Amino acid sequence: MKKIDIGDPEYFYEFGMSSIFDLPLYFMWNLPELLMLASFLILIGFGKNNFSPTFLSVFFLFAFELIPLGKEKFNFITIAILFFSALSAGVIISYFQNVYWFSIFFFMMFWLNILTFGTDSQTMIHILFASQYKNWEGFFDVSKGFGNYLLAAQSFISLLILLLSNKKIKERI
Predict the structure, then answer these.
(1) 16, 58, 78, 156: most buried, per Cβ within 10 A?
(2) In which band, very low, low, confident or very high, does the pLDDT at 112 lie, cut at 50, 70 and 90?
(3) Can you spell out the DSSP letters for 15-42?
(4) Alpha-helical segments (H) within the chain
């Protein structure tokens, strides 16, 4: 289909390859914030297996960044990413109840996508990679029409894997 091709990004070694070796450092850098978010979601969930408050908390906690108030056009792809990510957070907190798996899951989901396919979001690069770069082209070149759907598809597939990996959820299905 020729939608994804191996890229030749600028700063290949300085940013791309060094980020692979610095993964533990980046994870430890972001771990306190992820643990605090997971702890907050457990407190919001009011106990075991309470999915709805956790899902709604994550969705509305980050929705303000995505809902345009007269600034730009409404983007359904970013809402889908938020929706699938909030569902995943609800599943992890409600059924797995493990703050460490929550932290690893969300850090790796976004870190791997940005490193592999790139981003123009300077904020995401500064948060996940603690670096001074403004954008990253990624290891792969992706066609514009296809590139918008990658993180949404990854979020959806990750949610499916979470749902299929838990015995409690399988028993309900």
Answers:
(1) 58
(2) confident
(3) IIIHHHHTHHHHHHHHHHHHHHHHHHHH
(4) 18-21, 23-44, 51-63, 76-91, 99-117, 122-129, 144-147, 150-165, 167-172
Surface-to-core class of residue 60, CB atoms within 10 Å of its CB (0-12 exposed, 13-18 middle, 19+ buried): exposed
Query: What tokens appear for 56 in the block?
Result: 């709604």
Q: Give the separation between CA 162 and CA 129, rounded to whole angstroms.
A: 26
DSSP 119: B
Q: Are 82 and 112 in contact (CB under 8 A)?
A: no
Nearest to 87 by CA among 159, 10, 166, 9: 159
| 142-164 core/surface letters (b: 16 or more CB in 10 A; e: else) | beeeebeebbbebbbebbeebbe
Using the structure block, give the residue that is written with the tokens 């399988």: 170
Would you place residue 17 in the very low, low, confident or very high pLDDT band (cuts 50, 70, 90)? confident
